[in-house]
Amino acid sequence: MLGVFLIWFSYSKFSPEQLAEIKNHFKNANYRFLLLSLVFGFLSHLSRAYRWNFMLEPMGYKPKLMNNTMAVFTAYLFNLAIPRSGEVSRALVINKYDNVPFDKAFGTIVAERVADVLILGLLVLLALSMQFDALKDFLLDLIPLQKLIVGILILGALGITGILFVYKTSFSISIKIRNLVSGLKDGLLSILKMKKVWPFILHTIFIWVMYIAMFYICIYALEETSSFSFSTVIAAFVVGSFAIAFTNGGFGSYPFFIAEILLLFGISATVGTAFGWIVWISQFVMILIFGGLSLLLLPVYNRNK
């Protein structure tokens, strides 16, 4: 719903002439760079699938790389429909086809998200160091500090209440939840028991380098964005990452926030909107194709089980 509203809100501000200008940007874009962007995106997801086994191995599981890869693409496909549902579907896939317990698999996914958040945090600091004045007010307006603190406190209180309820009662549902929490804990702590720590770190860095490259190469698709500085790219990339994280795959929100941040760097709303949609659509097409193929091929690849 948020994405639909943002699409309506952003396009309601444009005149017919501006809408025609956005359409021309799409017609004149160099889509060869978008194909290269898809290659970088595919490599990042393949690396994520390979990295996953580094956390599963300490618990005695080593799923097939093909299943891991298809589980990752399936996860991104589900995230397009329901935010964060992909993490659940990914754990379910690997549970069904490689007998990895759901709770342990889900715990490893949460653990790797923690690692990804740390990298994103470093990129935020990098962006702020290069474009502090432009990003400070934008990020504070996007996520007001007071609301953020109140939200964290409320979530913390609810979490503590839930934990106390689970551990102080003997209802059958609470026993099931305790077992789930125990498995989640094993999955989370697997990141501390890895034997391949440095390969995990290197793959994590590679994944995010590919993410940035996937975004960076797209600036050459439009003549108006081809002269972006590296600091502008990093600032826009960070804002776009938040838009994807907080909505269902960034639908509607990604082009909106990309256009908003680029306005701060003197890029017109029409160019920023066209660029945002071009980047988002290229990623959407990749997820739609490979995620859809994964859903179809998973039972075929594992038909002997």
UniProtKB/TrEMBL annotation:
This is Flippase-like domain-containing protein. NCBIfam families: flippase-like domain. It comes from the Bacteria. It is a multi-pass membrane protein. It is found in: Cell membrane. The chain crosses the membrane at residues 114-132, 148-167, 200-222, 228-247, 277-301. Keywords: Cell membrane, Membrane, Transmembrane, Transmembrane helix. It holds the Pfam family LPG_synthase_TM.
